[in-house]
Structure formats: structure tokens, C-alpha cells
Amino acid sequence: MGKPPWRWRWGRRGRGRPPKHRVIWGEVPYVTFVPFDERGLPFSGEPIYLLPDEYEALRLVYLEGLTQEEAAARMNISRGTLWRSLDSGRRKVVRALVEKRPLIISSSRP
Question: Are 59 and 106 in contact (CB under 8 A)?
Fold first, then answer.
């Protein structure tokens, strides 16, 4: 399968229960998708960042064809958490397409 899985989670902020680690099974590339107009000039706008758990959820469900239950088990999270990651990832991709904003996929957020 290639590289072994790695764990990713949000940084802990404030009080309360710390976030659970998500198991990421592939390498998350640093990629920037920039839309261009008909003249070949890039559109400018605030970039949208796709987080590693959103990227992995989209990859497992839509590319590999796993069910949400199978993908959640593979990422070591609940199905509800996977659904939220899928929903957030889909919204970000669609927003980047519709609003013509750059989409950045990275394992870290600036």
C-alpha cells in the first residue's frame, strides 16, 4: 500500500475534550489549484484550504468507493465525524469552483 498511515488532528484550543486523531492513509500533497480567466490570467481571491481529514474523507469515499462506515473505520473516527468532514470538504471544493478562488491542499494550515 506504500507509506504507513499517519495521524493528524486539530490543535487543542481552550478547555474541553481534546480532538481525536484522524488516521490518514496516504500522503497529503501540497497542491494549489488556481483558476484562470479566458485571457490566461489567474483570478485573485482569498484561498480556500482543504484540511487533511477532509482530503482523506473525499479520497476514501469518492475515489476508492468505500461506504461512509468503511471510511470512518479506516480513519478511526465515527461515521458522523466522517460525514462532517465530507460535507465540509465538498462545500470548500464547490465554493472554490463557483467563486473562482484558489484551492490549497496541504497537511498544515498557515
Answer: no
CATH of domain 29-105: 1.10.10
* Whether 26 contacts 13, CB under 8 Å: no
Distance CA 65, CA 77 (A): 18
| Ranges under pLDDT 50 in the chain | 1, 110
Q: For 87, list phi and psi in degrees, rounded to 5.
A: -60, -45
Residue 104: strand pairing partners: 32, 49
106 within 8 A of 30, measured Cβ to Cβ? yes
What pLDDT is attached to residue 4? 52
Give me the pLDDT at residue 6, please: 53
- Which pTM value belongs to this model? 0.78
| Residue 67 to residue 61: CA distance in whole angstroms | 6
The pLDDT value recorded for residue 65 is 96
Q: Which helix (H) or strand (E) holds 33?
A: strand 31-33
